[in-house]
Specification:
- The structure is a single chain.
- With 171 residues, this protein is an alpha+beta fold.
- The chain has helices at residues 122-131, 148-170, and strands at residues 5-11, 19-24, 31-32, 37-43, 46-51, 56-61, 68-69, 74-81, 111-112, 117-118.
- The protein has two domains: 5-81, OB fold (Dihydrolipoamide Acetyltransferase, E2P) (Beta Barrel), CATH 2.40.50; 100-170, no CATH class.
- The protein is built from two helices and ten strands.
- The chain is flat.
- It starts with a strand and ends with a helix.
Amino acid sequence: MNTPYTTHLICAPQLNGAATIGALLATPGESVVADTPLVLLHVDGQAQEVCAPEAGLVGSFVVERDEAVSSGDLLLTMEIEEKAMQLFPLLDEEPGFAPACTLPEAKPAAVDRQNGTLTVAPEAASLAARLALDLAEVPPGPDGVVDEDAVTDHVRDILIRWRKLKRLVVD
């Protein structure tokens, strides 16, 4: 059985002002343990390390040395081994959600076609990565942002449709 990996986005932490990339401390493809320093940032004359959140493989860097970055900017990707877990306990009865046919049709995610960007909250990106979801398929919330609630609602919708399909096939 192959070990499942999920791509995680490693971003700059909350910073008090602009920072520059001082050094890339790992190489793409390198296997690292949790808390291994990956990037050295220089913030107002102080050095700050960005470390691996968990053990995994360093993916690709999207920044270079001496490049300016801000809070939340994407620095690199990592492939992190997923731990076996049950996302939702088995339920004896159908959850009390509105029937799918009465829900408004889902809109595609908020994508700015001119520059190809999708507005996603960092927590939603992390949750979607853990669940191996394509964020472009997740309808945004009322504010046009894909947040944790939007990801949860999308997963719930998938599970309800799957359960209905399973009942059709089994019955």
